[in-house]
Specification:
The protein has about 70 residues and is low in regular secondary structure. The chain has one domain. The chain is built from one helix and no strands.
Length: about 70
């Protein structure tokens, strides 16, 4: 888990992250900018966001979320 660094669950199901209300991921390392604390989909230096092959949300066109989260 990128939220608590424990095994058995992912950051989306992290009980510690939900309790603290944290949005950042202290144990994640971005492969775009090499910084710690976020994934490449949320990286300000990643112009393609969650869509590495281009494109974007089919509803609004933004690249920072998937269509299911629009």
């Amino acid at each position: 888990c990128f939220g608590c660094r424990k095994t058995g669950h992912s950051v989306g199901n992290c009980p510690e992250a939900k309790q603290s209300g944290q949005d950042e991921l202290p144990f994640a390392k971005c492969f775009v900018c090499k910084a710690q604390g976020h994934l490449s989909g949320q990286c300000p230096e990643n112009s393609k966001g969650l869509y590495p092959n281009g494109g974007g949300c089919r509803f609004c066109g933004k690249v920072d979320h998937l269509a299911k989260d629009c």
